[in-house]
Amino acid sequence: HRAFWSFQPVRKSPLPRVSDKSWARGPIDSFILAKLEERGLKPVRPADKRTLLRRTYYDLIGLPPAPEDVDAFLKDSSPQAFAKVVDRLLASPRYGERWGRYWLDVARYSDDKLNSTQEEPYPNAYLYRNWVIQAFNQDMPYDRFVKAQIAGDLMEEEERRRRPGVGEAGSAAGAGDLMSEPDLAAGLGFYALRPEFQDDRVDATTRGFLGLTVACAQCHDHKYDPIPT
Fold it and tell me: How many CA atoms lie less than 13 Å away from 35 in the CB half-sphere?
């Protein structure tokens, strides 16, 4: 019997011992520092404010800061300066556009069909794309995000049209121009657009939601994941 790590219950691991007691600002930092010290390495110095701002912009919205944004951050010496930048970027509609792209890759989204001889667009494909963007901008709970894409049409009408409560006040404002009243049935674009064939649907569903490569088990017992034919 193989003990697959992904099937084990979540547990809280004890913090590793580190020599530098001052560097870590949180539990995750302790694990990073432990591995660095294990290899005889030390953390680099903290980034300067200009570098930190650029990294944050590129990470959260994929765009560089405007010169006036850089100047304002450099002049802001308050303890909340960085937190204000992060909150503003999370509330930007660009945030959903940046991070929604990663899920669209998981969903194998495409604006058009695979046709080597001519353009053959999917009708209304943008509705699913915009729905994913808005789900990120409105901080939609992950369970609703998953259910909408698998069975959004089978959910109760009231639940389908209920506006997410978390993050609505900030980020929903920028996303409202995409879709003012989100209908979870739009999430069914996960299957309606891509993947097109049944074996691809099995693969996309299990890879995207379960972290398992189950499609291989359509032909043979899978030797990497414990999935029989």
Answer: 4
In eight-state DSSP terms, residue 95 is H
Distance from C-alpha of 35 to C-alpha of 39, rounded to nearest angstrom: 6
| Integer CA distances (angstroms), 53 to 82, 88, 100, 135, in order | 8, 12, 22, 25
d(CA 169, CA 64): 25
**Per residue in 197-225, pLDDT tens?**
667 888 889 889 988 888 888 888 887 77
Q: Is the pTM of this model over 0.85?
A: no
Q: What is the C-alpha to C-alpha distance for residues 163 and 152, in angstroms, rounded to an integer?
A: 14
Q: Which class for 105: exposed (0-12), middle (13-18), buried (19 or more C-beta within 10 A)?
A: exposed
Q: Exposed e or buried b for every residue in 127-157, given b needs 16+ CB within 10 A?
A: bbbbbbbbbbbbbbeeebbebbbeebeebee
Helices (H), the chain: 27-38, 49-60, 67-75, 81-90, 93-106, 125-137, 142-151, 157-160, 168-175, 189-192, 198-205
Cα separation, 179 vs 184, whole angstroms: 11
pLDDT, the chain, mean: 85
CA pair distance 6, 1, nearest whole angstrom: 14
- Rg of the chain, C-alpha, whole Å: 22
CB hemisphere CA count around 28 (13 angstroms): 0
Grouping H, G, I as helix, E, B as strand and the rest as coil, residue 199 is: helix
